Amino acid sequence: MKKTKFQENFEAIVIAILLALFIRAFVVEPFKIPSGSMIPTLLVGDHILVNKFIYGIRIPFTNKKVFAFNKPTRGDVLVFVYPLDTTLDFIKRVIGVEGDTIVMKGKKLYINGELYPDPYAHYIDDNPGNIEFPRGDFGPITVPKNSLFVLGDNRDTSRDSRFWGYVPLESVIGKAFIIYWSNGSNHNRFPWNYPMKLLDAIIYNRWSRVGDKIH
Length: 215
Description:
Blueprint: H1 5-26, E1 28-32, E2 46-51, E3 57-58, E4 65-66, E5 77-81, E6 89-96, E7 101-105, E8 108-111, E9 114-115, E10 138-142, E11 147-151, H2 161-164, E12 167-168, E13 172-182, H3 194-203
Antiparallel strand pairs: 1-2, 2-13, 3-4, 5-6, 5-13, 6-11, 7-8, 7-10, 8-9, 11-12
């Protein structure tokens, strides 16, 4: 029996929705940066895409992964489930992998006894730190098996592995790889007016950041 135009359109929409859900669940997922812990690499309001396939496919409703042929390496920018609150997702940079010994002395980072270049680290000059974010010496610590030591690039304002410990490999969601949208607008200025919110987002979009790869 010949399908009606409505049936054809409905089936196309359903297939498109299922395909989008599959891609979001297993391949690529968008995230928005809510804090400044990764400045200057990522700014508040950056919208990023995360490759969820690169470290293996997570089986829904479990912590198990299949096709996990690759592991995170030092320097990767990861999105992961926050170990202290599984309802939250965090983004940080991998500094230490299984077996690495980490030592921090002020602005200097040592990995396995050697000074690490740490090219993406950002510090507030002449800031000795404070009670909440001290810049004192840290370590030595050795990263346990199947775990990662992660830091925010904005070292003086990032709550990371220095404070709450390691990230289990099973908690890794994926690797951030591109900025697809970046907006510095305060969307709360027009909470009642969607056309104005859209215009505000366009005007205050950081166009120069759109399409930037995340390193």
